[in-house]
Amino acid sequence: MGSDGKPLTEQEILQKRQATLAMSKVGLADLIKQNPAIQKEFNAAPGYAVFSTTNVNVVLLVLARGEGVLFDRRRSEPVFMKAMKTGEGIGAGYQDQYQIILFKNTDAIDQFLVTSIDGQRGGMDLDANFSAGSGGTIRSFNPYITIYTVGLSGYDLQANYGGTLYLVDQQLNDAKTLSTLPTKKK
Q: Which residues on adjacent β-strands are paired with residue 116?
């Protein structure tokens, strides 16, 4: 939806896609600049996702929201997504950050995309985070997913756990992209 609450126009969708793709290139480049050894992992991985998120920690509550894109080497089109996190634990701070998710196998990508809530495809990840500063690694409870963070602005001091819901952005993905996503097995 646009800032006025109305559906995005075709031009706005194209602009938002381009901006999200540009953000993903910058986010991944910033992570690799901080840790060049990671480049080999990303080159060998079957897929990855990059999100731009805003993370808020207030005493015992953790909230985050963002937008991003998933790249699956099996698909020709990226999958545009939204992220929402809630959790609890000790923390204080506000931070804009890149969240980069590395998938170590295709099953992890499929599992990430299969969850369905109100007809929308997406995934969920449970994680724990112990960090101080502007970046680091979030420990996913899925051993085939590694989540890295790169701080843009702000500072965060936290020791928390929670869940992040990743939803496929229905407006930014065309019908062809949506039809290639895995479906939940009944």
A: 121
Alpha-carbon distance of 127 to 140, in angstroms, equals 4
Q: How many CB atoms lie within 10 A of CB 22?
A: 10
Token reading at 177: 């992209």
* Interacting residues of 177 by C-beta distance below 8 A, sequence separation 6+: 75, 77, 78, 79
Classify 109 as helix, strand or coil. helix
- pTM (predicted TM-score): 0.78
Q: Return the amino acid letter for 19.
A: A
Q: Locate 77 and state its tokens.
A: 């089109």
pLDDT tens per residue, range 135-178: 555 656 678 888 888 876 555 545 455 567 788 888 898 877 77
The separation between the first and the last C-alpha atoms of the chain, rounded to the nearest angstrom, is: 31
Angstrom distance (rounded) from CA 53 to CA 62 = 13
